[in-house]
Amino acid sequence: MPTPLSRRTTEEQSAANSAALRGAAIGAAKYGIASLVLAVVGTFVSPVYRNLTIQFKVFIQMSGMTLGGWIEADRRLRGYEFWRLAEARRKKDEDVWREWERMVGEGKKDER
Asked: How confident is the model at residue 36 (pLDDT cuts 50, 70, 90)?
C-alpha cells in the first residue's frame, strides 16, 4: 500500500535529502569525536589498543563515524517525515475549517 510519503515532489525529495545529509554530517562528527576520545583513553590505558596497527585504529575510528552518521541521518529523516505529515494534517484541518466557516457564513446570509 503506498503511503503519503511515497508520492514526493522533487522539492520534497531535495528537502528530505538535505535533512538526511545534515544529520549524517553531524552524526559522523559527534561519533567521530567520541571515537577519538575513546582512542586517546585506549592509548593511555590499554596495552592491547596500543599494540594495534594504525590501519586497524583508523578502521575503528571510521566505523564509529559511519555508525554515527547512519544513526543521525535516520533520526533526522524520520523527524522530517513527521514534520511533513504534521504539516499536511494542519493544512487539511485548515481547509476543513475554511469550508465550515464558508458554510456558516452562507447560513447567516440566508437568515437576513
From this structure: very high
